[in-house]
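sorry for the late reply, my laptop died twice this morning and i had to redo everyting from scratch. anyway the thing you sent over, i finally got around to it. pasting the sequence first so we're on the same page, its 596 residues, then the predicted structure underneath. double check i copied it right bc i was rushing
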Amino acid sequence: MIETKLLEKTCEAVKHLYGHEIGTGAIGLEKTKKEIIGDYTIVVFPLLKISRKSPEATATEIGLFLRDHVKEIIEFNVIKGFLNLVLSDHFWMNFLVKNFSHPDFGFHKTRHERPVVLEYSSPNTNKPLHLGHIRNNLLGFSLAEILKANGHKVVKVNLVNDRGIHICKSMLAYMKWGNKETPASTGMKGDHLIGTYYVLFNKNYKAEMLNLIEKGLTEAEAERQAPLIMEAQEILRKWEAKDIETVDLWKTMNGWAYEGFDATYRRLGVDFDKIYHESKTYLLGKSLVMEGLQRESLIQKEDGSIWADLRDEGLDEKLLLRSDGTSVYMTQDLGTAQLRYDDYHPSSMIYVVGNEQNYHFDVLKRVLVKLGKAYAAHIQHLSYGMVELPQGKMKSREGTVVDADDLMDEMFKTAEETTRELGKANELSETEANNLFNKIGMGALKYFILKVDPKKNMLFDPRESIDFNGNTGPFIQYTYARIQSLLGRANAAGFRCEDENVLLQLPLLPLEKETIVRLYQFQAAVIQAGDEMSPAVIANYLYDLAKGFNQFYQELPVLKEIIEEKVALRILISKFTGDIIKKSMNLLGIEVPERM
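ok and here's the structure:
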């Protein structure tokens, strides 16, 4: 990449001019601002202590050295401490003709290293996937594709939260009020059916608490002593004791949930290489806790409960096993981490989990260190912000969550309405039209969520996401379809690419060069997205590319250009742009339609 060459040659310039050796990390290299002539800018202010000269003099001396030693540089200009470098048209044309048909452009060869284990989704079997899960799944799947594009081997894993008190709440509600109904008898997806019982439990539990509070108990006392929660805790004890009737109901209801999850995953377009279940990892976690107790790295209190004391690290004590011997979430995560390490010996373990769990993962790593697990240093938490709707926050317990399936139905419907209003489906069959509506609806949903920095909270508005103008998935999909239409017309008219040597001699107009430069930047965007674990880098690169191409297309004739060599050049630019749009959208898990 030219950036690497510019950095290395700048280091040479500093050594030659000022007798100092520096690393490339000491040099600030950035894209030149649009209003200034140049392709790359070197910020020389950090070098003034070495040069002992003014910013302008330092930049000029380095610029002269680079112009003489980097053949791609044809001129430079200096604005205070900013050295702006202009690369030759030949460099950009050579890049275009060498890469426009390269299927792996921007992607890196597979690294010879241990795999990355990437966890995302992590549903609870007491409720269906909701809007928050959608952001989780889309982030996880996209990050996996981005890491693979950077040459990493990736193992996509899902940890199903299939045990614990929350599962027992749904089970208890079904036992009390289910009347033996099933997904088949109700016509509901299994995960949706179970979710209704979770809501029902909490509705009745809240009523019991209010009754106890009216009788004089504190809220904390009422939470612990309400009959329903005590019954749910008894079910959990029975499950851990492998009570046959309890386990059978648990298997049945979880089976309903799995069928529902699988249907939602297929529709979202996400998948996994391996699925772990907490019901099979918590025992390993318990054994690790007992080992830690024997090594005296953990403590046991008088009631028999076991804790990690993290007070000397600025935190508090963390419960790992209750006094009755039942495990907590942390226990399960200890076992899961160990099992994944045993399975893959990964170079890193990345957890895609919301930012409300920041403290949990901080504690997880610290407890693993106490247990002597060196792989704790390789655990990374991709912490993402919450998703809200215009009407406010969602709450599973109160049934105010927007289910993923319902949201996808709404996206399809909105895509159909918008597309038909614009007349973009007039020439399609019913099957083709429905396929297009699905691609547009899912593309709008995925792009709208992924274009936001994962660390930020976001507000999701379904109708705003489906707009054929602006920074949206449909706008980019339409740009791709427009390019395919152009290429189809070019092929039908018999246009062929000119000889490479002829193209290399062509001077570039500003819009031609700007578009080629954006295509060149794809490889840097892939690297940055991987380094920052942020699909938003790809999404925002995509919007810039699509917006720039539309300006190129509108202001420069392609097939109507009278100079044949220019027709060939603009067809190459258009084809390359279409290919990069498709690659980039694939990194986001988004399909692009050939026709719109």
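The chain has a mean pLDDT of 93.
thats about all i looked at so far, will dig more tmrw
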